[in-house]
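Hello forum,

I keep getting stuck at the same step: I have a sequence, I want structure tokens, and every attempt I make locally crashes halfway through. Rather than fight my setup again tonight, could one of you with a working pipeline run this one for me? It's a single chain of 381 residues.
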Amino acid sequence: MRILHVINSLDGPTARQLTRLLAELRPPEWTFEIFVAQTRGNVHLAGLPPETTVRMATRGRGLDLSYWRQLGLAIDRGRPDLVQAWDDESALYAGQLAASRNIPLVAQHPADVRAGWLARLAREKWGAATACWVASSPALREQAIRAGRPAARVVCIRPGVAALETATTATVARADFLREFGLPDNARCAAIISPLQLRNRVKDLIWATDMLKFYGSPVQVLVFGDGPQRWRMEKFSRQCEVADRLHFLGNRADILRWLPFCDLLWDASEPADSGAALAEAMGAGIPLVASDTRPHRDWVRAGENGLLVPVGARAEFANAANRLFTDRALAEKLGAAGRSRALAEFSAATMAAKFAELYRSVLARGVEKPAAAASLRSRSS
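Reply #2:
Ran it on my machine without issues. Output:
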């Protein structure tokens, strides 16, 4: 079975999910090609199985006809049985191209249904041409159905995590972790794993860092991720006089090596993201502090594997972090419970098995011919 994966970049939690999926589904039954919309970064490129074909094309802002043509050529050369789009912008291009070639499309349901006009265009224009939507949590599946997607064509597949080392079993020591990031010996570390966009409310966590500094906490914050608002976040950390506590690290291939040494994961986003970063933190055995949203409640069970905070409640984020920094017994209890749940429910093997079942069922059904695709073919003939 030949599958073309179309993705914005090989950076971040979504790219790590894709690398785990490809590591589980191997030839000869499965043949994968990846089409990436940027030629820079892509820190997880080296983690892909060696037999994976990767093609890259820089995608500009707005509608990029050059990118559209290159993706079309990749589809024509590779002749995939199925195309999977991992983000809204990829779905916009892949949806039209797949529909015009009678190739089924599997698309990721977005966490943020309020996204920009390109994302809305993708959902409105090619939603009917999508064979199946993948939601990363039950809450996002419910959201997709409320948005008008047929329930039978929306499946929930949770992100998969590897059996990560914990801080007590890691082959590197805490001293190596502190030295790698230039942290003091008494540091208490919060990790943020997020694209640096305004909707992810990283500014709330910068405010919370300032409050923790006022409390006298030795907090250090490691920000894994990049994005168009990075310069604003860095500027804001200087304005809050916590630039020495915030470490903007960009996308790193070795993030999972160091994650177990963090004391907690902070996630202030609203709406919530795919949950992949939360699953990874659970697999690493660290507790979660997240905004109290319906999607986050699928991952964070308050008092069991983390703490929930009202959206935008900066002081509460600081208080929750300070509680875990000072009550190590509670932090270890929440982290251990999260790891047990992640390994039991969110393994990479389970995720891959569900995707394999989905691919087979989509191909067994064949390609539906929705009005959007039919009208496109009639105009081109």
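The CA atoms of residues 72 and 97 lie 6 Å apart. If your local run keeps crashing, start a new thread with the error log.
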